């Protein structure tokens, strides 16, 4: 077993946050009508993808009826539909859809995870919950040593990627505010790219379009060339 596999086992077994444990398990028991036949995952979500990845996509947290149901990050919800379709068009995924853990999806040179590993009520983790998850993210960052580009989906992910890099001694003194397409160069030659989260709130309103998402991954891919 690799160190990354051991970390992912630790993540899946985590019960450090009582509120999140209670919520994720309640959602898994009660479900929603359209997913009544599913056996929900109902646990924290490990990262997913190529352990030798140079691109790392970071989200906020699993969706209650997406990743918390399927057991894979950005899988089984509208955000994942947009994300994996864009990764496929950019050549990072072997297929454009992500429906379940056994659907055959594979990532090439890309890894996907989240700052917080359990689905939070109203999609809003507390500061304490974020901080309890932070060591997992820091260890993930240490183990994914080939990563050159981070794509942070949303302001929460952006600020916490920068926080982890600052703790690792890689941050420059000046850090820009989050914005779509904002690029931060780290002191170690890596880059963090801000991207609007592919939530329904952003995609339905037109704040984030397919082309905007494609442009972010095209930028990331060009940096890795």
Structural account:
The chain is of the alpha/beta class and 225 residues long. The chain has a single domain, classed as 3-Layer(aba) Sandwich (Uracil-DNA Glycosylase, subunit E), CATH 3.40.470.10. The protein has helices at 3-12, 18-30, 67-70, 78-89, 127-143, 155-167, 200-205, 210-224, and strands at residues 48-49, 55-59, 110-114, 149-153, 183-185, 191-195. A 6-stranded mixed sheet has the order 1-3-2-4-6-5, sandwiched between helices. A hairpin with a 5-residue loop joins strand 5 (183-185) and strand 6 (191-195). It is globular and about 45 Å long.
Summarize the structure.
With 225 residues, the chain is α/β, with parallel strands linked by helices. The chain has 8 helices and 6 strands; from the N terminus they run ααββααβαβαββαα.
CATH level-4 homologous superfamily: Uracil-DNA glycosylase-like domain
* Percentage beta strand: 5-15%
Quantity of strands, as a count: 6
Overall mean confidence score, pLDDT: 96
Number of domains: 1
Outline type: globular
Distance between the termini: 31 Å
CATH architecture: 3-Layer(aba) Sandwich
- Over all CA atoms, what is the radius of gyration? 16 Å
Describe the sheet with the most strands. 6 strands, mixed
Helix content: 40-55%
CATH class bucket: Alpha Beta
SSE string, helices as H and strands as E:
HHEEHHEHEHEEHH
What do we call the CATH topology?
Uracil-DNA Glycosylase, subunit E
Largest beta sheet: strand ordering: 1-3-2-4-6-5
The helix count comes to 8
| Computed structural class | alpha/beta
Q: Give the low-confidence spans.
A: none
């Amino acid at each position: 077993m690799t160190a990354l596999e051991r970390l992912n086992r630790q993540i899946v077994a985590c019960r450090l946050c009582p509120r999140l444990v209670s919520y994720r398990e309640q959602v898994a028991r009660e479900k929603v009508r359209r997913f009544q036949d599913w056996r929900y995952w109902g646990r924290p979500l490990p990262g997913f993808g190529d352990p030798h990845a140079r691109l790392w996509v970071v989200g906020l947290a699993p969706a209650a009826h997406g990743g918390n149901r399927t057991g894979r990050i950005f899988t089984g919800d509208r955000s994942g539909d947009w994300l994996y379709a864009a990764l496929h068009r950019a050549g990072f995924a072997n297929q454009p859809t992500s429906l379940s853990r056994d659907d055959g999806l594979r990532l090439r040179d890309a890894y996907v995870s989240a700052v917080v590993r359990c689905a939070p009520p109203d999609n809003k983790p507390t500061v304490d919950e974020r901080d309890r998850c932070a060591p997992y993210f820091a260890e993930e960052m240490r183990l994914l040593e080939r990563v050159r580009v981070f794509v942070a989906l949303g302001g929460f992910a952006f600020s916490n990627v920068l926080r982890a890099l600052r703790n690792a001694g890689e941050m420059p003194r000046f850090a820009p505010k989050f914005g779509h397409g904002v690029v931060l160069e780290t002191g170690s030659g890596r880059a963090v790219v801000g991207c609007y989260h592919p939530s329904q709130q952003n995609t339905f309103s037109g704040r984030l379009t397919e082309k905007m998402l494609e442009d972010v991954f095209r930028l990331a891919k060009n940096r890795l060339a």
